[in-house]
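Data deposition worksheet. Section B asks for the primary sequence of the deposited chain exactly as it was used as input, without tags or linkers unless they were present during the calculation. Section C holds the resulting structure in token form. Section D is free text for depositor observations; keep each observation to a single sentence. Incomplete worksheets are returned to the depositor.
Section A, Depositor: J.P.
Section B:
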Amino acid sequence: MSVGIWALIRAKLSAFVAPLISRTQSTARVRVLAKPSNKLPVGMSARRLNALASEMRVCENYLEVGVAQGLTLEQIKVLHRWGVDPTPQFNTDKLPKGLKFYSQDSDSFFNELQASQKFNLVFLDGLHQWQQTYRDLINVLRHSDKETIIVIDDVVPDDELAAFPDWDQALLMKDAAGITDGRWQGDVFKVILAIAQGHPELGFCTVTTHKPDDNPQAIVWIKDKSVTTFTSELLPQLEKQFADVTYSDVFVDGSVPEIFGLVDERRGISIAIEGSHSRL
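Section C:
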């Protein structure tokens, strides 16, 4: 399909959908975040993050990049919680005790963050574009201690359409294919390739429940404790290397490649804890 046709379709779609999104976000922003002890069923991400937090030697500061409605952020059982999102879908004036929230993009947040601020546990669930997630990862590592653990969402796309880096086009193509679930992971999977290719100092695995509705997530830790400086200088080189890499190139026949280190959720959490505690 030509660029001109795509532009026309997107313009018409935006004109139709924008008011609906606006009304939805306006209503959602009335939502008030609950305390960690709320009685709602614990979400998948919160379950994994809380399991990690409970086994870490020190876990006092938690950071979540990409908060949306705050469903995960409100269920995290860590003393100090930080959230970052330029378009939060909840009432930011009424926050639970111990929670700080920043209505800005993650690049701005890290640029303004004091160098001395460290986080023990981090959840990256921002833009579903691998370059931004990679920058977030590097920025988090600059604010990490030797036992910090980072969980990255959306590293295994549902299919080729869900892996398309442009959200609007991904949903249009899914709709054209008769897929109405709205799930979209983007090309965050390339962050795993970037870690494997350019960061031997990091350890990682990808956890799953092996259930149909599961969303596999990567858990990352600092494997080589002697490395204390992290920069994003590799990004241009990695961008060039991965420019033509597609979902089909990586997930042959829809299978998760060995490089992702796919393991059962419980086993993956144990591996991450052991790795973060390592003295190497």
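Section D:
Confidence is low (pLDDT under 50) at residues 1-29.
Residues 31-277 form a domain with the Rossmann fold fold (CATH 3.40.50.150).
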